[in-house]
Predict the structure.
Amino acid sequence: MEKLIYILLFFVSINSFAQKKKDLKKLGIKTIEVSENNNGKTFFDSKTTYDKNGEIIEDWNYDKQGNLKSILKIKYNNDSDPIEEQEFDGAKNLIEKRIFKYDLMGQKTEETFYDGSGKLTKKHIITYLSNGLKSEKKIYDGNNILKSTKKYIYSTK
C-alpha cells in the first residue's frame, strides 16, 4: 500500500509540475492517473495516456463520485498535429468527432465536426496571409451553408 501511495504521489507531482511533452517523453511516461481523497473516500479524478512523443492520446475524466464523465481520444499526423478527436460521454457513446486538415506549412486549414451518428454539424475553413498569420475563418453549418466569417486584422507598433 505504501508503494502505491508513493507511485500516486510521483504521478501527481509529474502531472502538476512537468506536463511538458519533452519531459513526458524523456521520462517515458505512458499514463498519469490522478485520484482524489475526499472525506476518507478515494476515487479517480482523471487518467491521461500519452504516445511515445508525449502527445495525449486518451484523456478520461471522472465526476466527484468517481464515475466516468467523458473520454477524449486524439490521433496525430507525423508532425504531431492532431488530425482527429473523438469525444465520448460517460457511457462511452460517441458525442462528437472532429477532423483537422493542415497545409504544407503545418497550418490548420480545416476543422470538420460530426455528431455521434456521423452527421456533419459544422465546418471551419481557415486561410492565412503569406507571412503565416491567420487572415480569415469561415464557419459553415451542417448543410455547408456559410454562417459567419471572422477576419483577422493585425496592427504593428
User: Anything to note?
Assistant: The first strand starts at residue 31 and ends at 38. Residues 1-77 form one domain. Strands lie at 31-38, 41-50, 56-62, 68-76, 82-89, 94-102, 108-115, 120-128, 134-141, 146-151. Confidence is low (pLDDT under 50) at residues 1-18.
